Structure to design on (198 residues):
């Protein structure tokens, strides 16, 4: 039986490994598993954010990271885990191309603010390749929608690479509608928004 629960420290490495395997074209994966582990621990500790994991027989099969306020989350995680994140990203953090992408990531909240998008966001979601097509992604997405409703948010957004057909189909099939497009790390991203019923 699959159980959905909040991330705890012992499962953080498994989430980082799943991110690196399933979201391997993204910038964050370039910083390595140690960095991803620290990042997800930081998101899980943030008062306006959550990380849920899907577990079966003590194995992490999927996860979903959510934040009620992405701008605030970025600044709080950076303040609280700056040393850990820097240490975990060594030596990649000294690569000029990586530094450029880090700065672009830090500018992301400003990009979304200029387009009047919801602050609430599904930061990332991934499932083990062996479980795809079994509805696990939808179960995790449901948790984020439920949390946004509990937080009193009118809408939630999620970003998907414009070239990632499977991800784009997944969000539109769930009722997300494309709102706009932004460029992040030189790549176009579709921004999807879903209104949340009271």
């Amino acid at each position: 039986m699959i159980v959905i629960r909040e991330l705890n420290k012992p499962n953080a490495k498994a989430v980082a490994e799943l991110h690196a395997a399933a979201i391997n074209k993204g910038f964050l994966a370039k910083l390595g598993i140690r960095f991803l582990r620290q990042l997800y621990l930081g998101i899980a500790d943030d008062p306006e954010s959550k990380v849920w994991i899907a577990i079966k027989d003590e194995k992490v099969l999927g996860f979903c990271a959510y934040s009620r306020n992405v701008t605030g989350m970025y600044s709080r995680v950076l303040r609280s885990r700056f040393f850990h994140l820097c240490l975990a990203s060594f030596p990649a953090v000294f690569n000029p191309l990586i530094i450029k992408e880090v700065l672009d990531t830090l500018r992301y909240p400003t990009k979304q603010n200029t387009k009047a998008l919801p602050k609430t966001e599904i930061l990332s979601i991934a499932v083990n390749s062996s479980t795809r097509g079994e509805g696990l992604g939808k179960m995790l997405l449901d948790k984020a929608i439920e949390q946004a409703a509990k937080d009193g948010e009118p809408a939630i957004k999620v970003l998907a690479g414009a070239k990632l057909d499977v991800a784009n189909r997944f969000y539109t099939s769930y009722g997300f509608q494309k709102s706009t497009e932004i460029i992040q790390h030189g790549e176009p991203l579709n921004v999807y928004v879903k209104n949340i019923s009271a």
